[in-house]
Specification:
It contains five helices and 17 strands. With about 290 residues, the chain is of the alpha/beta class. The protein folds into two domains: about 120 residues, Roll (2,3-Dihydroxybiphenyl 1,2-Dioxygenase, domain 1), CATH 3.10.180; about 150 residues, 2,3-Dihydroxybiphenyl 1,2-Dioxygenase, domain 1. Strand 11 and strand 12 form a beta hairpin. The longest helix has 13 residues. The chain is globular and about 50 Å long. It starts with a strand and ends in a 15-residue tail after the last helix. The model has no long low-confidence stretch (mean pLDDT about 90).
């Protein structure tokens, strides 16, 4: 019951056809269909929609979280209404989605709660199903990290209205929330929010799940073969402890993430040292890592 995990996201890109080619040939995604100037893609293992690409700009247009029943949609619809937040119901917008609630968050991000069709995809990810594909062969959409000038209103909204828990907080100074990592499942984060001084920026990165460090190595070689430079990584984060590799595709940053830990209920961890929060191995991100789309 409740929100179980991320479902999919819609990202804006400048050249739609070029972006689709990179996602299919380099990232190993599979096209599911096209409508209204958008292309829907799956990471290819469970055949569910993981990503929607839409022409025009960069950044995240909307992102969806998965719920497990109509009762969940009714529950969160009431929570939103009680909080005075306008929302609307959508049906059959994306492959494998039977119904969703769409609303705007306090930071202006468009969020959806999506109920998937029962017959769409298996109940769990099986890595062997990805073995026949080309590209980096990611397993699934793993998490999304948003940008906001002030993360706290969105963090409070997700905790108070959507029942998320906070795993970790980065506070560069007392009483200042620089970033937060939140979970709906027992994985360390499904959604994270990082502060940015730039107005109008919505996305820090869209993350794909990988099997292991060795999988990150194979993916790095695949990126190199296609001339896609790595921005930073591979490495291991301090916050969350997951393995990472970052790169840009079609104007948006992507992360390849592996070994995301499970978290027990409890008070969030607090960090005030950015280098240690970013990397346990002493890696320093480039200046470009502070940019967003």
């Amino acid at each position: 019951m409740g929100i179980s995990q991320v479902s999919h996201a819609e990202l804006a890109v400048g050249d739609l056809e070029e972006a689709v080619g990179l996602h299919v040939d380099v990232l190993g995604m599979k096209e599911l269909g096209r409508s209204d100037g958008s292309v829907r893609l799956t990471a290819g293992v469970d055949e569910r929609c993981d990503l929607v690409l839409t022409s025009g700009g960069t950044g995240v247009r909307r992102f969806a979280l998965r719920v497990d029943s109509h009762d969940d949609l009714e529950y969160y619809g009431k929570r939103l209404a009680d909080a005075g937040i306008e929302h609307n119901t959508r049906s059959d917008e994306d492959p494998g989605v039977s119904q969703s609630l769409q609303f705007q968050t306090p930071t202006g991000h468009v969020m959806e709660l999506s109920l998937l069709t029962d017959a769409e995809g298996p109940q769990y990810i099986h890595p062997a199903r990805a073995a026949h594909r080309g590209g980096i062969r990611a397993l699934d959409f793993d998490h999304i990290t948003l940008q906001a000038q002030d993360p706290k209103p969105l963090v409070d909204f997700m905790v108070d209205i959507l029942d998320f828990q906070i795993s970790d907080i980065f506070a560069p100074a007392p009483g200042v929330m620089g970033a937060a990592w939140l979970r709906a499942s027992d994985l360390h984060h499904d959604v994270a929010i990082i502060s940015t001084p730039e107005p109008g920026k919505s996305l820090h990165h869209y993350a794909l799940g990988m099997e292991s460090f060795d999988h990150l190595k194979v993916a790095a070689d695949e990126l190199a073969r296609h001339g896609v430079p790595i921005e930073t990584g591979p490495g291991r984060h301090g916050v969350g402890a997951n393995l990472y590799t970052y790169f840009w595709v079609a104007g948006n940053r992507y992360e390849l993430s592996a070994e995301m830990p499970r978290v027990r209920p409890g008070a969030p961890g607090m960090w005030d040292n950015f280098p240690k929060a970013f990397s346990l191995w002493g890696l320093t991100p480039p200046e470009s890592f502070g940019h967003a789309s």
